[in-house]
Amino acid sequence: MQFEDPADLSRVCTERLGEKAGRQFAAMARRGFRLIRSTGSIPATGQCRLGGPALLEPETRWPEQSGVPLSLHAVLDTDALAAWLGNELPIRPGLLNFFYLDPDLPYEEYRKLDMLESEVCRVIPADPARAVETTAPEPARSYPAMPVHAAEVSMLPDCWDVEDEDVEFDRDQHWGAASLILGEMGDLDGNTAGSHCAFGWPDTSYTLKGSSRDADGPAVHLLQLAEDTELGWGWGDAGTLYFTIPVKALATGDFRMAVAQVLCC
């Protein structure tokens, strides 16, 4: 659920859920962005883009898995995003390059791989002052470069990301907090799983492995990439690719801990 105005978010939550539960649910909102193709009237946000060459520091090696190079899917310019994110971005990593194993590699290339989940993706930061455009080596795919505008939004979690202790509800009327949210907020879900988004909450009714809770709460959502025929990528039937990182890893800038997961019909 995405709102351009945080005040509208709070108002809708209290109207739908009641004063106390509404405040509790609204407090779970996170700041994020819809990534929209830049045009003449819609400027790109910093160096944010989908596809194109990577922006890496000169000494950084192109990431690979068992000798097979990963494909660059997106670059986020966190300096340009930091003002809206505020405390939700505890560090300033500069540019973030998002890599994932090309799903259309020839079968013989896949046979070489030890398919560990932690190694099919990389998120590599780079200093904007030192970063240079770096072209993908073969057989990694190079997607067309698409500069994007990061539209500021406030995001509420999906009902399945809400735990029973997060929101007060009538236990005689609802079997859990998810039942309350689904029943009262369901028509506002917005279903943005077909769009590209950054930070905030991932738009999915399925549990992401990276979003499971630990002592620090849910993992931080970094990037959501939908199927895109213009760019030429897709992941199964209406698949969406999600990148997440543990809270502590983001706080220390350890992007080696980022993971990616594909969810599809």
UniProtKB/TrEMBL annotation:
Domain of life: Bacteria
Entry-linked Gene3D superfamilies: YwqG-like
Short name of one Pfam family: DUF1963
Entry protein name: DUF1963 domain-containing protein
Naturally occurring in which organism (per UniProt): Streptomyces incanus
InterPro entries associated with the record: DUF1963, YwqG-like_sf
